[in-house]
Design brief:
Strand content: 5-15%
CATH superfamily of the largest domain: 2-methylcitrate dehydratase PrpD
Distance between the termini: 56 Å
CATH architecture of the largest domain: Orthogonal Bundle
Order of helices and strands: HHHEEHEHHHHHHHEHEHHHHEEEHHH
Radius of gyration: 22 Å
Structural class: alpha+beta
CATH topology of the largest domain: 2-methylcitrate dehydratase PrpD
Shape: globular
Largest sheet: 4 strands, mixed
CATH class of the largest domain: Mainly Alpha
Length: 459
């Protein structure tokens, strides 16, 4: 099996290197542009966070050159590694970045920080950048599908981020298949053993994995260009041998160029772990009923959430950080019930301290969902409210909105992008939407597009 997996990795890298000089099918180009825009918005949304700002300042003090943009207020610039690391710190902070539905993997967040920095520094045209994004995303998502964790021990942000960053870096640089293979496998050997429960416990270093991974992936390509590389079997040795994953080597190569991973991504409007989204969606249905009957959230005596196995992991009742709140089913469902939103406001410091939410959190119980179906209905929720007057209300959600089966309309995604970027970069959302629409900018160097999207910036 090790040799089979190694051959699959080689075939995947050979295909990606060859495909990097070809144009994307129009629907795949649009999906790549949507992923770029959505993830950039998620980064900007996080740069008002004090910890993100402090990390940014630390990295900029040590930066040697001004070759790539940090997508924060004022659009400061640093060397490409520093820019990728700072943008990577912001990438998943607010839990608003997109994700890959067929495996636990946020390939965009792993690929895009390195991609942005390398493409700006090199003057890569926008059209080629989108090709590199789609291909690096493909490599990352296929790695996640080929080496699934039977139990969520290592968080995917730690396990796969170096792969995505190295793939993006090597593709932007135009590396040949051998160097792409050596860089990505070398980066895989430096994957992190970041525990999944760090997210549930709200340990803030979890948000740094996409920062450190961007730096490591870019360095791995530097080293591969000097012959300091991994081998095709590195993926197997790391994931199966060291991390104890299963292996499905066919996922590395089946349908290459036909079934694109970017087409199976999902977008979020709820600022929390996607495993809680179906429960939040059901809770919001019940909140609307509560309002229609003129009742206060204090009318809720107890909440029972029937959820899928991964939802059952989100057990924290007293979240100590906003990250813990974003990975807490009791908090997500209680905040949605009280506030009527699953967005940023539901996971703010004010929401975490709200006594109505805190009291309700303590009356939430999680139970296994009795009827889990194949994907995309494999993350269902049924939320039951027991009211103080003895009535019981329930709402079901078999698959949360945002994935390929129930996509958000593009107007919703544009509204989200404006909300995330407007206070810092008033022009960014509309300029990025021109990229999504493909309105004549594909030959523009990415660095020129960066100048356009950051031209109006709050000071």
């Amino acid at each position: 099996m090790r040799a089979t997996a190694g051959r699959g990795v080689t075939q995947l890298m050979t295909w990606a290197a060859g495909a990097s000089v070809r144009d994307l099918p129009a629907p795949i180009r649009r999906r790549a542009a949507l992923i770029l825009a959505d993830n950039l918005g998620a980064m900007v949304a996080a740069t008002s966070e004090p910890m993100v700002q402090a990390a940014q300042q630390d990295l900029l003090r040590r930066s040697c050159h001004a070759e790539a943009t940090i997508f924060a207020r004022g659009a400061p610039r640093g060397d490409r590694s520093a820019a990728a690391a700072v943008n990577g710190m912001a990438a998943t902070w607010c839990e608003l970045d997109e994700g890959f539905r067929s495996a636990p993997c946020h390939a965009g967040a792993y690929v895009i920080p390195a991609l942005l920095a390398e493409a700006e520094a090199s003057g890569l045209p926008l059209s080629r950048m989108l090709v590199c994004l789609a291909l690096a995303y493909e490599i990352t998502a296929r790695a996640a599908r080929a080496f699934p964790y039977p139990v969520m021990t290592v968080h995917p942000h730690a396990g796969f981020v170096t792969i995505g960053a190295a793939a993006a870096s090597a593709l932007v640089r135009g590396c040949d298949a051998a160097t792409l293979l050596g860089g990505v496998t070398g980066a895989a050997s430096m994957s992190f053993a970041g525990p999944f429960n760090h997210a549930v416990d709200g340990v803030m270093v979890r948000n740094a994995w996409t920062s450190a991974g961007a730096w490591v992936g870019m360095q791995a390509v530097d080293w591969a260009m000097r012959g300091i590389s991994g081998i095709p079997e590195t993926f197997y040795d790391v994931f199966v041998g060291a991390f104890g994953t299963d292996v499905a080597p066919g996922a590395l190569t089946e349908g290459l160029g036909e079934a694109w991973a970017v087409a199976d991504g999902y977008h979020k409007i709820f600022a929390c772990c996607q495993y809680a989204h179906s429960a939040v969606e059901a809770s919001l249905v019940l909140h609307q009923r509560l309002r229609s009957e003129g009742l206060d959230p204090d009318a809720i005596h107890e909440v029972v959430v029937a959820t899928h196995p991964r939802g059952l992991l989100l057990t924290t009742v007293e979240p100590a950080t906003d990250l813990a709140a974003r990975f807490s089913m009791p908090h997500a469902t209680s905040a949605s019930a009280v506030l009527g939103t699953g967005g940023q406001a539901a996971f703010s410091a004010q929401a975490m301290a709200d006594p109505r939410i805190a009291n309700l959190r303590r009356r939430v119980s999680l139970v296994p969902h009795p009827n889990i179906q194949p994907s995309p209905n494999d993350r269902p929720a049924r939320v039951l409210w027991r009211l103080r007057d003895g009535r019981e209300w329930a709402a079901d959600c078999s698959s949360a909105q945002g994935g390929a089966d129930r996509p958000f309309d593009e107007a919703t995604l544009l509204t989200k992008l404006r909300e995330n970027t407007g206070s810092d970069f008033p022009a960014m959302a509309d300029r990025l939407w021109e990229v999504v629409e493909g309105t004549g900018h594909d030959n523009m160097p990415w660095r020129d597009m960066v100048s356009r999207i950051t031209a109006e910036t709050a000071k």
